[in-house]
Each structure stands twice: as structure tokens, then as C-alpha cells.
Amino acid sequence: MATRARRSPGGSPRRILVILLLLVIALFAGIAGTTAWASPKGKWTPLLGLDLEGGRQITLQPIVGKDQQVNKGQVNQAVDIIRNRVNGNGVSEAQVSTLGSNLIVVSLPGNPSEETLNSLAQSSQLAFRAVITSEPVQQPAPAPSPSGSATPSGSATPSGSATPSGSATRSGSQSAAPSGSASSGANDVLPQAFKAETNSPSPSATPSGSASAKPSASPSGSATPTPPVQRQLPGAGQQPTSASDTAWASKTVDDVWVTNNLVPSGTTYQQLYEKFPCTAAAAKGGPSLEQWREVAARAPLDQPDVMCSQDGAQKYLMGPSEVSGRELTNATYGQTTNQQGQQTGQVAVNLSFNDKGKSTFADVTKRLMTFQQNTPQNTFAITVDGQVISSPSVNSPITDGNAQITGSFTNATAKTLANQLKFGALPFSFKELTSSQVSPEVGSDQLQKALIAGLIGLALVVVYSLLQYRALGFVTVLSLIVAGVLSYGLVTLLGTTSGFRLTMAGVTGLIVSIGITADSFIVYFERVRDEVRSGRPLRAAVETGWNRARRTIIISDAVNFLASAVLYVLSEDNVKAFAFTLGLSTIVDLVVVMMFTHPVLTLLARTTFFGGGHKWSGFDPDRLGARGVTYAGRGRVTIADRKAAAGTAAAQGGNA
């Protein structure tokens, strides 16, 4: 009585092959999606690294104050931070090294974005500072247009009455930006804890839609706006009791402002606040606007500071920092959600603080709650790189240690800021000393030779498989093709989604993986052939051999993957790329063996050619030295076994 072969515990082989086909389709559909909708656009070919494509080389020089020096430890720390920043999206193969005692050379593959270039030199020290005072910045009035000057805003024309704000609102908004926009324009607030600053009324604005015949602006009203009157803040001569105390305004500024020749010795923070420029026009004739920002970014955290909003529309005098980037444990980015859990489409940077930051942040927000009727002292300025990126006011204490920065972020800018904050602040800022294009070190000629070497190795594996396994060798060929398609798709997709770039070291890892993949096939095929040698039918031999070979393949690939992971973590630059591709290929090998090689061999075992043991199938029992078809079911002794046992007994009897 014939015994049916046991079914594969992994399911129907045809179903598994269909699932694999769907995975391949999904992979290349993802690549197609990146070419259509990703920013920047994806490609159908892998991104190449610095040695294959070339890129840009930038030399950075630290910006230090007078009588300040940079030590080797600070330079090495900066190298690590910059390397983490540029590689924050994955294995982008940036090379960061030192030049001389204090210069840093950064080599970036391809054409790096402006955000990436700008993120290299910024210190990115996050600080939360209580606002002592704030005011909108006076912007130069725009030149009146012919139509605006020809028709008085108080005219009784239909257009004038329909839009009474006319040029008056325009000049008013230029001369006195509301504090809500000053907190960075579209910058919103920390949800459920901070409320947005209220807009300061413009002195020359009238309600939109008003039908009043009263002129909304006189000719002189659209001229140069009157500068704000600077008032001496209360508390002069007193010792500040908190970071929000106005007594800080009368304190002498830190030496960093004096040594950089921005203000004379003895200047108070009130005077610095009055002198600090927020626009290039205001800085004209003296130190540049960038110099003021750089010094503001390097000012001590335990001292007050003066900064402007990102759009230059608001100026802030702030107390010492009470929570800084040192207390950050993580920084991520993503879309905000409303109370119903639906995404709003607005991008935010999410911050998590450690226990110290959580406790301090809760105390500060509780204190700011006491200034509810005293704006702007109930606001908190969030500063990065010498600029205020948001200035929300406190609505309720934040006690869970989580904060959120929202504003006019795109996914790219939010990602850059999150990476800068997550990977730490540079010990100082840098300026770009040189920037030049770098030609490929290896080039297309060397890449072509490497690919030829890989093809030769692949051809040798194919020839060996056909000679050793005959028709079964074609299963090896097809499996290698599937593995190649998956590897190519993954490398291409990761180039757009994770910044992975293929270097010569990465190509080497892919070539080495050919041998690893072929080794898995050999282990499986030899296990099956051993079962055939023992007398099992091919269908039963495939399942039994797979159950035994599967453990060996998984253990072997696990060891390879572990070695790749350790090498990736402990290595740098090109060696990391080799480890990455080797580990990726190991995963692909497992997928191909389990979802392609085994199902295909299971289906082939059901055919007459392979299942019948054709001499060119690779499973010919005579060629393999099988003892005959001896397996007939559980607990049954076959005729072949009886004959073998009888022959053995006869031989023993004759010898006796």
C-alpha cells in the first residue's frame, strides 16, 4: 500500500510562491512610488557612494572668540557629532576626518541638499528660556505703489469701502508685526500646554470689512513708522529671583559679547537688547547679522541672552536657560494629531526629556502660570543656533517630560532639526572654509571590473551546480536570480528612503553573498540526496531533507548576520557599508531558500522527470548509490531490506 507524502508544514508551495511574487511586486511598486512622489525624487538605480560617484568636499573651521582655543578632544567630539548627523538617515557613506589641529573635512556623496550642508556647521544647542521682554521689530516701510498713492485710503470709492484696510493695514503690518507671527510666523504651540501669543493690535489697522467713511490712513500714516519707546524695565540694581525676573536687564553682559567686539565693556542686557539687530538693514555699518547670531548661540546658558525670531520680526530678551538639550533623551518628527487621533497635516518636532529635565520643565511651566496677566513674561522662548524658533505661552503645567515644537516645518526641515538635537550639540559653531567638487576615486572603470569579477564568480557557481546537480542546478540558477532581483530592489529603495549609497565595499559585500547563498542551496540539496540514497522516494526525501537542512541553514545565516551586525556597529565608513550589504544579503538568502527554493523543489518532486529519478534530474538513485526503494511506510520492512538481510546472513553462514 502506497503511502502519501506528508504535506509541507509551511503551507502550499504554490501559495508561498504567490506570496513571494506579491512581495517582489510591492518592492518595485515602492520604488515606483518614490520616483513619482518622494522628495527628492527616487531613482530606478541604486545611489552610488563617494568613491563611485564623487560628491562635495567641505572644510570647516571652528568659530571661537578672542583668546579662546580649540583642543583635540573638542575636535574629535565634533567629528563624531557631524558624522552622526550626516549619516542619521542610514548608511550615506559620508567621510568625516580632521585636517591639521582644528579643521574638519567632510566629504558628502552626490549632490547634498542645502539643509544637509547647513546642518553641518550649526551648534544646534536647544535651550528653553523664559522671556523677560519682547517687541516687534520695526521693518522699513515698502515703497508706495502708484495705485496706492493715487487713491486715498479714505476715498469713498467702492473698492476703498470694500477694503478699508487698504495701504494702511499694509504699512501697519510692516511696521508692527504681531507677536503671534513673531514667534516664527506659522509656528504654533505646544499642544495642551502652551497657548499661542495673542496678536498685538496694529496702531494703524482698522477692522477688515468696516464700512466707515473715516480715512484709515493719512498720507503721513504710511510714511516711516515711529520707533518704539524703550522703557527701563523694573528691578534695576536688584538680585534676580528667577529666570523671568526683569532685574536681569540691568546686569552687565557676559564677556562673550565684549570679546567679539559687539558691545563695549560695561554694557547691560537692556542696552544689548536695544542694540541687537534683527535684520540685515539694521546691522548695516557694523558687525553682520550672522555675527550677532553666532555670538548669541555661544552665549552661556546660565546667563541672559538676546535673540530674534527666525523671520526677524520679533526681538527677545530672555533669562538664563533652565532646560537645555543636555536633558534631551530623544527627538523625533512627524505629523501632529487632533483630539480624535486624526493627523492634521502639520509637521512637528517631538522632544522627550530625562528625569531632571522633566522635573525642571514642570517647575518652570508652573512658575510661568503665575504671569498669566503679564505678557510676555508668561511666554517661553525655544532657541536653536542663536534664533528663537517658537515662543509659546503657558496654558497649563507640562509634567510628563514631553514637549512638541510646531511651526512652518516641512518633513525635510523637521527631520534635520530632530537629527541635530538627537545627536547632540557641537562644542562650537563652524564656518565653511572651502567647498569643492570631488571626482570619483574609483570611477566607472573600477566598478565595471568589480561587476565583471562578480559575474565570473556567479558563472563558476552556475557551472559547478550544473555539473554536480545536472537539471537540479537550474533551481540554483533561478534562486540566485531571485536573490539578485530582491537585493537590487532593496538597495535601490533604501537609497531613497534611508540614504543608503552603494560603494565598492558594499559591492564587495554583495559579491561575497553569492557564495553564502549558494552554500544554503548545497546544504539543502545534499540533505535531499542523502535521503534518496537511503531509499526514500523523492517527495518524501524533499520534506525530510528540508526539515533537517532548514536548521542548518538558519543557524549558518544567523551566525553570518550576527557577524555582520557586530562589524557594522564597531566599524566606520566603508567597512560599515560592507557589513550592511552582507547582512542584507543574508536576510535575502533566508527569504529565497524558504519562499522560492524549497517550494520549487517540492513542486518538481511531483513531476515524472524529477520524481521518477531521471538520470539527468540530479536525483538518479543509481548514480547516487541508493539501495533501492526501501521505504514503504512507518514500521514496515521492505523486500529490499529482507533481501539485504538474507544476503548478510548467508554470507555469515558460509564463513562459518
What is the strand and helix layout of this fold?
Blueprint: H1 13-37, H2 50-53, E1 55-62, H3 72-86, E2 95-99, E3 103-109, H4 114-121, E4 127-136, H5 146-150, H6 158-162, H7 166-175, H8 179-182, E5 194-195, H9 255-259, H10 269-275, H11 280-283, H12 289-298, E6 305-309, E7 314-324, E8 328-337, E9 343-353, H13 355-368, E10 380-384, E11 387-390, E12 393-394, E13 402-406, H14 411-422, E14 430-438, H15 443-469, H16 473-497, H17 504-533, H18 538-570, H19 573-604, H20 608-611, H21 621-624, H22 639-655
Parallel strand pairs: 6-11
Antiparallel strand pairs: 1-3, 1-14, 2-3, 4-7, 4-10, 5-12, 6-7, 8-9, 9-13, 10-11
Sum up the structure in keywords.
656 residues; alpha+beta; Multidrug efflux transporter AcrB transmembrane fold; Alpha-Beta Plaits; Gyrase A, domain 2; five-stranded mixed β-barrel; four-stranded antiparallel β-sheet; 46% helix; elongated; disordered N terminus; translocation
Helix content: 40-55%
Question: What is the mean pLDDT?
Answer: 75
Q: What sort of overall outline do the alpha carbons produce when their principal axes are compared?
A: elongated
Question: What is the total number of structural domains?
Answer: 3
